[in-house]
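FORM 7B: Structural annotation worksheet

SECTION A. Query
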Amino acid sequence: MSTRSSSTVCRQPLCRTLPEGKGIAASISRRRPPVTEDPAEELRQLREENARLRAQLEGVREEHRLLRFLVDSLPDFVSYVDRDLHYRFCNRPYAEIAGRAAERVVGMHASEVLGEEALRRIQPHVERALRGELVQYEEYVDYRFGEDQYVDVQYVPRFGPDSEVRGFGVLVRNITAQKKAYEALRQNSANLETRVTERTESLQRLNQRLTRENQARRGAEQALAEQGGQLRLLARKLLEAQETERCNLVRELHDDVGQALTAVRTYAAVIRNQHSSSDDICPRSAQTIMDLSGQLYDSIHRIMCQLRPRALDDLGLSAALQSCIDAAGLEAAGVAVHVRIGKGLERLDETVSIAAYRLLQEALTNVLRHADAGNVWIRVACEKRPKASDSYSREVLEISIEDDGRGLPEGGVQVQRLGLLGIEERVHSVGGDLVIRNRPAGGVFLRALIPVGKGAHDG
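SECTION B. Predicted structure
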């Protein structure tokens, strides 16, 4: 009995140390050893059960240490308070920011940890959590044992079996870096918007100034175009007046000087014939007068041909151009001349004909004086060319002159040459275009395009 009695006394304390549903032992599975009449066997079984329970308890403790390690490793502040606002749990970062050890925080009231003023500030959020709401808010916190921080706070209610709130978990996350980044981004955005506004206003002012400058430029271009047209008209009128004056001069030279020279030769011949002796000074003087008057007549005839070629009035432009080529003396200087003159040039008006003749005359003179060429190619023809402004064609007189000489100097056309200036002004005065450049194979290429037809070059 004593054994049974001792056995009974032994079992009762063990059974009382593991009350059901109390503390950590409630999570350990209970397996009551079978009752036996052998005290030794019963003691062995109780020892085995005790060893098993110790192993389970050690496992639970290890899990608790692991959970504590994980929670303490979080950068966030984690804690749990009951309905009376007493701390039941906090991780290491929370305890450090509170200036205490974690085991000392447990059991303290929130006012002792946060302070009365801070507790009053968050009281509305606490009341919502105690009513069972999930609460989240942001706040700037002046921690007594740490640097000031912007934090994101969450309160998670914990409900009991009776659906009443037993307490709430607290998760505090430091969002100072995000806040500063957001503030920097907002400031940069504001600065960028300011810069964009300033830049936009600057561009608008620049655009307005460019608009005014463009308007002024268009006005200047229009005025320049009008002046250019007036200058071309004036140049054409001057050239026409020059040609008219040349015609009058040729007519006066032919009618007056030519007749006077003819009369001088006639009187000189009479004087010579009246004195038959060859030793007499009179017939010799009369012969000298006749020779000098003939030379003077030839010189005046050459001048008249230069001023106004008779072929231009008597035979037309084609013959006048051929006469100009023959009179240039290129072949006598050893230059081979290759000529192509088209048909239908006689119908061109006088202004275009004179411009073409003078252009060819000056160009051949330049070839003879400066080119040192072996060949010169001349082409004159009327052709249909598309207009740049519309789809139909216009008729132009094309005059092209090429040589295989030394070409233009590196500086290009020497605009100071009066002959070239005269060619350019004459072509432009009749609404034409002039191109002068070096040939790839050597020498100079000159081409003039002059519009022909009624009203083609009215300025």
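SECTION C. Observations
The first helix runs from residue 2 to 17. The CA atoms of residues 302 and 309 lie 9 Å apart.

SECTION D. Sign-off
Analyst initials: ____
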